Amino acid sequence: MELSRRELLTRTGQAAAVATAASTLTAGTAQADAGVKLTQGTNISVSRSADGKWLAIDLVTAIWVLPSTGGAARKLTDELQDATLPSFGPGNQIAFQSYRDGNYHLYVIGLDGSGLKQLTQGKYDHREPAFSPDGKKIAFVSDRGGSYGVYVLDVASGALTQLVGAPDEAAAPQWSTDGKRIIFISGTATVDVVSLDGKRERLVTAPTGAQLFGAAFGPGDQPSYTLMRPGQADLMLGSTPVVTGQDVFGFAPVWDGDSVLYTADGKIRLRANGSTKDIPFEVTVPVRKVERHRTKNLSGGPVKGIASPVVSPDGTKIAFRALNALYLVSNGKAVKLTDGEYFDSDPDFSPDGTRLIYASDRTGVAQLRIRDLVSGEDKAFAPDPGAQITPRFSPDGTKVAYLDQDGQVWIADAAGRRQITPALFQPGRPTWSADGTVVALAAVKPFSRRFREGTSQILSVDLASGELKYTEPMPFRSIATRGDDGPVWSPDGKHIAFIVESVAWVVPVDAKGNFVGEARQVTREVTDSLAWHGNDALVYLNNGRLRKSTLDGRASTIRVGLNWSKPRSPERKVVHVGAYWDGEAADLRQNVDIVVENGCVKEVRPHQGRVDIDASALTAIPGLIDAHNHWHLRGRQWGARQGRVWLAYGITTVRSPGDPVYQMVETREALAAGTLVGPRFYATGEAVDGSRVYYNFMRPTLSRAQLDLELRRAHELGYDMIKTYVRLPVELQRAAVQRSRVPLSSHYLYPAANLGMDGMEHVGATNRLGYSHTVTRQGKAYQDVVELFVRSGMSMTPTLFHNRALFAEDKSLALDERTRVLFPPWEYERYLADANSGGGTSSAYLLRNWVEFALAVHRGGGLVICGTDAPLDAPATATHMNLRAMVKHGFTPREALITATRNPARWLGLPIGAIKPGAPADISFVSGNPLVDIKAAANVQQVMVGGRVHRVPDLLAPYQNQPQVLAAADALQPLASAQNTHWWHEPEWAERVCCDH
């Protein structure tokens, strides 16, 4: 196929980011750079040719070759190949793993770059190839058997032989010199060996608290491997350390007698005769200098944030959440049902249409309430000590299925509450069979323990037998999101509807939900949030519009008639402060008045005359910006508390690089309209992911056509950015850059830095490799990473999860009244326990290394922006813990504050993050001098957003003396299905892993 000019130039690293004429979206802007010279590599691996003349390495997701004595490296694979882990075979062929088509497969290529050939195919991953000594076989691992097992590929015939299978999670196989045995890592706990006849032996077991990586046969067939302990990575031979005191990368070393070739500290190293020498290498890679976009503020108009719509049984009314309230729409007129400062969400009609069940945190935490639509009576229903969210009435109206904060499904009725599933990882909303004997919902089913991603399937619970059953909506396909995208049972029980690849499908089912026919596509436009309209039509959301489609595809728009506008700016105010920091200066300026008009700073002048607000005992600093959090990851559980806790800690702007789209748009509109208390909110919808997903708000995207639908949603709903996620192939990531008009971020530095991406999230982040090319397992980054960040201008958002290690010195933020009052009870209990344990498993050495990495980027001229990944880390308090960690490990207080003010403001292209004439009046008033003591930045007494003042006591008041829950309904005996029999069934918060989001 002939390449377009754009594709040709992109493959050579010179593409200009301009839109094609056919695209309705314009491309982001970036300028070509002459190239970046790399002399070190972070987490690179090395292989040596059989004749000892050549080395192959993987650097910035490409395979390179260089002379074994070192020198300039030559690139063999292009960016789209996304190639790693080379292994030399006879004839100087090189095997490697490639993610080109959205799954890992094995390829071979010649030393001169010729003969590229794909060896494996399909929807399973095939990883970590190793040529046998005679070159006739390749050992590798694959999840094709239900977990990662060891396989052998016969190169000539293509035949596969499985040597190790379930329940193992094997990794990194390597051959013995005689080609009769294969050594590998099982999990990260043991080194095992298996012979070609299947005989297996355990050679090494990791000590407590340690992990094993990169096994190989050493001299005398002794096992060699990397032993990783906190702050230490040793290359071992048997039980003897061979290399210590270095950041050994954990890939299989190459032994030749007593000499060993390995990678560590960003370098290729050869240890022989008791001494070590570096083998120098040099490559030059192209980058594209980022030009910043300008984020647009919402100004009002038709409501697009319509969350979780449901249709009344008679089809005359639709209920939904919008602008921080519940609404009923009928005949094009919307009527508000609830109004207040709390969080009311997820309505559902009773079967007779006379009542609504919904969740509300008006009593302190999200609890079920029933509203009589005739009388207006509103009362609690079957209270629970925890959260009660996403309720659904049973077909007879006597029961309600709902989720709690741990992802457990419950059924409540007049007799009490009964648990029917174990804790599930971010499941979807329940739906009932027509006879009320089965409850179904969306749940993730991973492919293996080794890598967390899987597909979002239909999980059904038989209430009579207690059986749990997973059903794929289609082979190797996911339900679009585990939110409101299905499954949804039709009222007559004959069909289930769901969304796959952003369009609606229906499938005929029997009474238990078993598929009895093929799924049929109903819509061809962007489709979200399905609800049945009778038995022959679906209601859904299409880019902010409420739509209805018959099952034969005839669609029409349902008029909502709901608009919003921004509130008037507060009156002019003069604020007298004892001191202020403008966001740039090296020192505070003393005794000034800040004049605020129309929500902006009019002037800053020496104190004079009468003032409206006396803050003479306080210091004014720009409101802080947290540039990485996910408002609705636990949004229903946090409810209206979340906006208040951000403000109470002086954070006046937040940026979300991923949220359930309509929950996000609803909250963004409510905050802009002033119907919800909280900071400025800039955000995106679901991250654009590949064929496998983990979180419930990731969009599995499998084609260019579907990507166009995803980008159309982003455009029409006015996303502030787009995040591409872990499993999206490079080709689709590149297309997203070319076709988008907003900033983009991901978990990858390269080739993102050459595609025109605007940023990278976390220091290293979850990576489809299972490790990062940005930071090592010891938390270190080398010249390649720092230089690429600085030269490209891409932002880096560290999200310093291990800031919890600071609890060993100071747990005041966990004990603070703001934290105690505004955190939901279960969140506060976990947070306090973490603080009391001194940070639990958080690693002080990793925290130090991460901060030193960020500091090198910052002082090199790169753009470091403060973010936390809240609520995976604690909302608001983690922002301050990040700043404190930065200062502890090298940042000055001013530098740390700049990462939470000026820098993220620059990323957003907004005049926030400063106190100066013309800037929005987003100001935090604190006790003390944060330029001297960074802890003072958390001593917030009051905060101003757009000139509107919020006192901390007022922010706490709605939850200050609330009972945690009303008298709880009786907890009945759980069903058998509530027992946890699947290893992946766990609450979302159960496993804290750094940078996993």
Residue stretches low in confidence (pLDDT < 50, at least 5 long) are 1-29, 993-997
Integer average pLDDT: 93
Derived structural class: alpha+beta
Strand order of the largest sheet: 58-57-56-59-70-71-72
Rg over CA atoms, rounded to whole Å, is 29 Å
In DSSP terms, counting alpha (H) and pi (I) runs of 4 or more, how many helices? Answer: 16
Give the overall shape, derived from the CA principal axes.
Answer: globular
Measured distance between first and last alpha carbons: 37 Å
Helix content: 10-25%
Strand content: 35-45%
Count of distinct strands: 72
Overview of this structure, please?
- Belongs to the TolB family.
- InterPro entries: 6-blade_b-propeller_TolB-like, Amidohydro-rel, Metal-dep_hydrolase_composite, Metal_Hydrolase, TAT_signal, WD40.
- It comes from Lentzea indica.
- With 997 residues, this protein is an alpha+beta fold.
- It is built from 16 helices and 72 strands.
- The chain starts with a helix and ends in a 37-residue tail after the last helix.
- The model is unreliable at 1-29 and 993-997 (pLDDT under 50).
Structure described in brief:
The protein is α+β, with helices and mostly antiparallel strands and 997 residues long.
Topology:
Blueprint: H1 5-11, E1 30-32, E2 36-38, E3 46-48, E4 54-59, E5 62-67, E6 71-72, E7 74-75, E8 83-88, E9 93-98, E10 105-110, E11 117-118, E12 126-131, E13 137-142, E14 149-154, E15 160-164, E16 170-175, E17 181-186, E18 190-195, E19 200-205, E20 211-217, E21 223-229, E22 232-237, E23 240-246, E24 254-256, E25 259-264, E26 267-272, E27 275-279, E28 281-285, E29 288-290, E30 300-302, E31 307-311, E32 318-322, E33 325-330, E34 333-336, E35 344-349, E36 355-360, E37 367-372, E38 378-380, E39 389-393, E40 400-403, E41 409-413, E42 416-419, E43 431-432, E44 438-446, E45 454-462, E46 468-471, E47 488-489, E48 495-500, E49 503-508, E50 520-521, E51 528-532, E52 537-542, E53 545-550, E54 555-558, E55 563-565, E56 573-580, E57 589-597, E58 600-606, E59 613-622, E60 624-626, H2 635-638, H3 641-648, E61 651-656, H4 661-673, E62 680-683, E63 687-689, E64 698-700, H5 704-716, E65 722-723, H6 730-739, E66 744-746, H7 752-755, E67 759-761, H8 783-792, E68 795-797, H9 812-815, H10 817-822, H11 825-836, H12 844-859, ...
Parallel strand pairs: 6-28, 56-59, 60-61, 61-62, 63-64, 65-66, 66-67, 67-68, 68-69
Antiparallel strand pairs: 1-29, 2-28, 3-4, 4-5, 5-7, 8-9, 9-10, 10-11, 12-13, 13-14, 14-15, 16-17, 17-18, 18-19, 20-21, 21-22, 22-23, 24-25, 25-26, 26-27, 30-55, 31-32, 32-33, 33-34, 35-36, 36-37, 37-38, 39-40, 40-41, 41-42, 43-44, 44-45, 45-46, 47-48, 48-49, 49-50, 51-52, 52-53, 53-54, 56-57, ...
Helix pairs in contact: 3-16, 5-6, 8-12, 13-14
